[in-house]
Amino acid sequence: MLKVDRKKCTGDQVCTTVCPTGAAHMTDNGKAEISADVCVECYACMNVCPQEAIFEADENAGKE
What we know:
Elements: E1 2-4, H1 14-18, E2 24-26, E3 32-34, H2 44-48, E4 54-56
Antiparallel strand pairs: 1-4, 2-3
């Protein structure tokens, strides 16, 4: 699952231009967000983010 570190995201929208499914989109607060139900984990957004704000989160973290 890909997530966005909102502290690092500058809202430059680079991720939204490369996302093939539209999972990467901008929120009302001007930060990127990744919709997990649409994301195919191609990593295109993560690879182009100049702030390195997109990262792979462990789905099982905190579920013990």
